[in-house]
Amino acid sequence: EQLMKKLYSALMTAFNEDNTVDLQGVRAMVRYNIDVNHIDGLYVGGSTGEAFMLNTVEKKAIFKTVIEEANGAIDLIAQVGSLNLEEAKELAQYVTDLGYKTISAVTPFYYNFSFAQIKHYYNEIVKDVDNQLIIYSIPALTGVSLSIDQFAELFENPKIIGIKYTNADFYLLERVRNRFPDKLILSGFDEMLLPALALNVDGAIGSTYNLNAKRAKAEMVAFDAGDIQKARDLQQVSNDLITDLIQNDIYPSLKLVLQELGVPAGFCKEPMSHPNPDMIAGAKAIYTKYLK
Ligand code: SI3
Hints:
alpha/beta; TIM Barrel; eight-stranded parallel β-barrel; 12 helices; binds ligand SI3
């Protein structure tokens, strides 16, 4: 079935036990997303990709590997945002040259930047590149909340085309959706997919779709068909899964479960956890309960 709304996995980065990037593992996860998940696209270099712990060389190697492996089969969005604006600009140019059709950048965090500074950051990132940008808004991790009028001001730049909205504020989501009907709004909290669909987002991006895409797609199909009870039932199972993943330490557990599915997803990068026996047992139980 052809859905209008799109589902993207937030791609993970596979690491070796010594915390170096494992590009073969990255390739395997891209393949799994294309061949098994039948995903519409990948969000590369985001939180789930552990990108804020990587250096520029590592980020570039991942961007290059992913677009090579995907080979035009799916949409790719490159998250290039960084507290180092020079790095963000360099990456924006790099991924544009590689052929990424969309970039994204997290709101600059940590220093309590003013809105004027945030606006300058975005306009700088897109200024010299022939590309379009999606704002990555994730207030819970950045501490940065943008208002409806601030989004409007950022959208004055025609290269800024949308928002990756990882926020549980559905009042703001409704305001944004209806004030900017032509902007792309992609929902970021997998556990809140159904209410986001109800507010007419254009799609969703998330970490758990790396292994739960089939169920999420089925939910989107049910929603589209007006079968809200079925969509709720599917969201409930997904949320049981997400709750168990969070309790078991989500990022390493996503990788452990992928390994159960035959995907060499590798380790997380420290200070993220490396798995202990309890975590491994927990991941096996999650696999058996929800994905076998
Ligand atoms: O990788 C990314 O940048 C994301 O797409 C983040 C995405 O919104 C995830 N958020 C975080 C903080 O990891 C969600 O997919 C999240 O893991 C999931 O909803 C479980 O809470």
